[in-house]
Amino acid sequence: MEAGPDAFVLVCAVRSSTGAVTDFRIVDANARAAALVGDSVSGLVGRSLLAAFRYSDGTGLWEQCCTVLATRRPLEQTLRVPLPNSPGRWVSRSIVPVDDGVAISSRDVTERHQAALALEASEARYRELFEANGAVQLLVDADSAAIVDVNPAAAQFYGWPRASMRSMLLLDLDGTTLAQWRESTSTTLKLPGTRRRAVHRVAQREHRFVETFSNLLHLDGRLLVHQIVQDITEQASAESKLRESDIRYGAVVSSMRDGVVVHDASGAIVSSNPSAERILGLHSDQLMGRAPGTGPWIAVRADGTPWPPESHPALAAIRSGQAQPRALMGVKVGDSALRWLSVSAEPLMRAGDTAPHGAVAVFSDVTEDRLAQERLQEARKLEAIGQLAGGIAHDFNNLLTVIRGAAGFLSESIDRDSPLQPDVLAIESATERAEELTRRLLAVGRRQLLLRARVNLNELVQERVDALGAALPAAISVRVSLAGEPLFASIDRRRVGEALDALIENAVAAMPGGGVLTFGSTVVTRDPPRLISPASENERSEVARPQECVMVEVRDTGIGMPDEVKARLFEPFFSTKPFGGGRGMDLAAVHGLMAQSGGLVECDSADGQGTSVRLLFPKLAIEEATAGSERSESDIARGAAPVGAREVLLVDDDPMPRLFTKRSLESRGYVVIAAASGAEALAELAVRGNAVAAMVTDMTMPQMSGRELIAEVRRRSPTLPIIAVSGYTADSRLREELAAWNVVFLGKPFTPNALSAVLDSLTGSAEASSPR
């Protein structure tokens, strides 16, 4: 959120008792957004959107946010948003729905907009000279010979409307070939100002001899030939030239990648090019004579509703005499898959006619582009949910650290047989349940700190099977079919085990009347782009070649699911269970874990025919699988040199966990220096030097992150014992970096005993382990 050039604000809707939106409150923002109003990020959070960004009040921001919230459709636009010191400021604004709120990003595009205005002014001056000049002038594409524009004098001379001439080729006028045109263009490139004599066709069924004066120019990124035409004689008949034009036009159309279909005045198809037949999957004899709505195909709109035949772009062009802009149309021929086409149409007009004598429809296959756009929108939605979930989990973990520790203090301060002990146990139990919820939030957002190790998946599956025991209903039998060889993968054993538990729970729920629950494992090969490379997970890079994977399968013989349920199976807030009937986010958390692990989850199911869910991970080679495991926190602790001191530097930007952790360590005999930022911590280290025995730092902090602080401390003090604490990260490789720095990681929430135990191990201060 901080790395990009956009100002970003996340807001939630404030509603009245009737559900009407009365305000939008800022939930989060980046530093760029805060800088726009001269405030801090923390100063923005909790404020009204329009109160914070007063300069946006007159730009329709409130109405746009309400519209996006109501329609759940993103909105993008470029508009003028003046500031006191920049009245001519233009902004590109994007508003995306997020839960009961919206995410707003904006980018200053003033320079680009001003450049566009300057270009428009320049083109306007050129157009004025082009339009007002009495000489006959043409603008022609240097490569295709397509007439791009003509001035009024040319339209009067040739006798065709300007709109008609813009759909013609210069070859239609002078009778030359495209090769001859390109040759003449090449000569003009070498010798600007070339004069030529030619025979040009005009609309009054005549041919005229003309002299052309040609120069090359660049306009809108295209190389054009500017021709000034002087009439030097009468010309011959136009009919033969028209027939030649049709031949040339047919050759061009036949070579086009886009489909081209010509309709007569009734709408019936009279010709088509090979690309049209290829895209539609029909032969020309299946197309000829058929009008929209009468062919062996069905057409649908972008929302899936039927497309009325009378609204087909070709028929609309014939009826209105106006060009029809590109429209998205879904076309299905027989049992073939639905293809998405971008279709436009132009009416065909003869000189002097008042009504079209037909229309030409041009279309291209945009199926892959549409699917890519849908995948991009889904990725953006999941990313927004992930950011929200990760942020909530981070703050929640800070609170749970305080709650867990406070419960420990309370338990230590009362007698073991005190009537308050059950209340303390209830607090601790509720904290454990809350910890599970934060883990799922982090898994959905793909923000877990995974402790990777080389795990034999066969052993992990067998452990889960053995643990089922009597918990499995008697009507459900278990079958196990594991690979004969060990199957190794680099995974977080605990998290993948939780994923298997979630799949088992769903499989059992799908067999209320009993059935067979089958576990299997094997080695499979997956082609790109189905498997995500764990080496660069944050970039979602795809494996360049087929890759061997280890696969674990959980299959049931239950009720299965229809396609519409299967399509939403891994959405964070979708569930087939009644409200309160499940723990929530199980399968979404599984999906997030697999993506973060560089793996893939697949599901096959049919209504009434059972379900198979497969987890796939990149396979480790034998030499990798036996190379040893990652170092644990205890390994790192044993490698640190005891210093015997008890002064600890504590760094956390959140005052609540900072004060609580300070209190808990002081109760165990440590002297604690608390710092609210990385900058404060470095200042304390500079003053205290070797007196500091260890540093405990949060990883997620503004301005200077825990990673940046640790890197700087390691540069200054290579041997200082460091403990990194966090419940959230957006970088799955953080654990490897911490291990390389010889830093111990402790996940939030943690107990005071857990933290002091690690500190005791690092500093050798065994006498500091007991609370005062």
Question: Your description of this structure?
Answer:
The chain is an alpha+beta fold and 772 residues long. The chain contains 26 helices and 28 strands. Strand 11 (259-264) and strand 12 form a beta hairpin. Helix 15 crosses helix 19 (586-596) and helix 23 (678-688) runs parallel beside helix 24. The two termini are 44 Å apart.
Strand content: 25-35%
Mean pLDDT across the residues is 80
Oligomeric state of the chains in view: single chain
- What best-fitting shape do the alpha-carbon axes yield? elongated
Measure the end-to-end span. Answer: 44 Å
Largest sheet: 6 strands, antiparallel
Using only C-alpha atoms, the radius of gyration works out to 35 Å
H/I helix tally: 26
**What structural category arises from helix and sheet content?**
alpha+beta
Q: Unreliable stretches, pLDDT < 50, 5 or more residues?
A: 235-240, 529-544, 579-584, 625-645, 766-772
* Helix amount: 25-40%
Core attributes:
26 helices, 772 residues, single chain, disordered C terminus, 6-stranded antiparallel sheet, elongated, alpha+beta, 5-stranded antiparallel sheet
Quick recap:
By secondary structure, the chain is of the alpha+beta class. 38% of the residues lie in helices and 26% in strands.
Q: Could you outline the blueprint of secondary structure elements for this entry?
A:
Blueprint (H helix, E strand, L loop, with lengths): L6 E9 L5 E9 L1 H6 L4 H4 L4 H4 L8 H11 L3 E6 L9 E9 L2 E8 L1 H23 L3 E6 L5 E4 L1 H7 L3 H4 L5 H4 L3 H13 L3 E9 L3 E14 L2 E10 L7 H17 L3 E6 L4 E4 L1 H7 L3 H4 L9 E4 L12 H8 L3 E10 L5 E10 L9 E8 L1 H47 L7 H24 L8 E4 H12 L7 E6 L6 E4 L1 H17 L5 E12 L20 E10 L6 H4 L19 H11 L3 E6 L5 E8 L3 H4 L7 H7 L7 E5 L3 H12 L4 E5 L2 H11 L5 E5 L7 H11 L5 E5 L7 H7 L3 E4 L4 H12 L9
Helix pairs in contact: 14-15, 14-22, 15-19, 17-19, 23-24
